[in-house]
Amino acid sequence: MRELEQARKSRLLVYLTGDRRGLETRIAYDAFPFTLTHLKRMGKQKRIDLFLYSPGGLSMAGFGLVNLIREFCESFGVIVPFKAHSAATLMALGADEIIMTKLGQLSPIDPSVVSLFGPQLQVPGQPGAAQALPVNVEDVMGYLDLAKETLGTQDPEGLIQAFERLSQTVHPLALGAVSRIREQTLYLAKTLLEYHISGEARIQKIIKAISQGRFSHEYLIGRKEAKDVLKLDIVEDEGIEDKAMQLYSEYDELLELNTPYNAEAVLAGKETTTASFNRAIIESHGLTHVFRTTKAIERVMLTPPQVPAVTMGVFEKIIEERWFEDTNI
Q1: How far does the chain reach from its first CA to its final CA, in angstroms?
Q2: Looking at residue 110, what is its pLDDT?
């Protein structure tokens, strides 16, 4: 961290939300008070760099975090060692500079809406229990665009029927939420880009490409495309890149990002155990906050009607789940 600060002539703030399979963590509002604690320790700085790794999360939380950091610096940079997807990409749009490694990835910023009025999926083995499915904003717009292209603009009756069919599958209130969140996301992106880019045409080109022009939410935007096609302010520096990847490898090991969560592996042959899992990090030099989940895990016998036949299973109970100050990890 000190080497990155010296190379960039900045102060470094780290924010990682892990995507370890089974223990995924997202950008959220709970990061605000801890981020503020780190920023107040730093005080007003000429430049602050945010070392960012995340699969995404709440767009408004990402927007708010950028605004909070900008209160403490004249220049704001984002370092992307690997994944900065969705809401994390939105955060990067607010940076005067984006330092991407060769492995660095951005993604489209089209959000998904989870609503009680959205489609429901029956939970297997739990009669009457259903789980709300997310509705992707651009999927809805893509369906309507497909209807327009297939039917042509000269058939308003056909478009009405297409919309009615959509509203039978997705509740009209959920569709209303999709429309509002789409407009909100475009507004957030525009606001963040205007902090450091002048020229409406350039801003609108970036927003269109990163919200609608990349086919699916899973599309990955590498460094070359971010720089040459989207025309973002991308910085390439081999020395900084090496230091960023060394730092990322430490967090990769700490959060076990490449080790899918498996309760049986945690039990390791025992009948019961208690285990803690680090899932997110906010860190600056001399201070670390970690989001940690502690679980009680127990091997149990499952019998009908829970399952078709008697079988062994695992029962898990969260004992504690919160942010901790921990400078020893």
Answers
A1: 15
A2: 73
User: So what's the pLDDT on residue 8?
Assistant: 96
Helices (H) and strands (E) in the chain, counts: 11, 12
For the chain, domains (ranges, CATH) are 2-107+220-260+278-290 (3.90.226), 112-179 (no CATH)
Tell me what pLDDT residue 314 has. Answer: 87
* Structure-block tokens of residue 220: 């990955």
DSSP class per residue in 146-191: HHHHHH-TT-HHHHHHHHHHHHHHS-HHHHHHHHHHHHHHHHHHHH
Task: Note whether 95 and 75 are within 8 A (CB).
Answer: no
- φ, ψ at 164 (rounded to 5°): -60, -40
Identity of the amino acid at 203: I
Distance, in Å, from the CA atom of 28 to the CA atom of 51, rounded to the nearest integer, reads 16
Strand 311-325 vs strand 287-302: parallel, antiparallel, or unpaired? antiparallel
For the stretch 212-225, pLDDT in tens is: 766 566 889 999 99
CA 243/CA 57 separation, integer angstroms: 26
Do residues 116 and 142 touch, judged by C-beta distance below 8 A? no
What is the β-pairing status of strands 234-235 and 135-136?
unpaired
Cα–Cα distance for residue pair 225/37, rounded to 1 Å: 35
Residues 319/297, Cβ–Cβ less than 8 Å: no
Tokens of 175: 């569709």
Contact 1, 266 (CB under 8 A): no
Classify residue 137 by burial, with Cβ atoms within 10 Å: 0-12, 13-18, 19+: buried
Identify the three-state secondary structure at position 277: strand
Q: What type of residue is 79?
A: I
Amino acid 113: pLDDT: 59
Distance in angstroms (rounded) separating the CA atoms of residues 147 and 134? 22
The percent of residues in the chain predicted with pLDDT above 90, rounded, is: 65
Size (the chain), residues: 329
Task: Name the token pair of 149.
Answer: 């292209």
Please name the helix (run of DSSP H) or strand (run of DSSP E) that holds residue 313, with its range, or none: strand 311-325
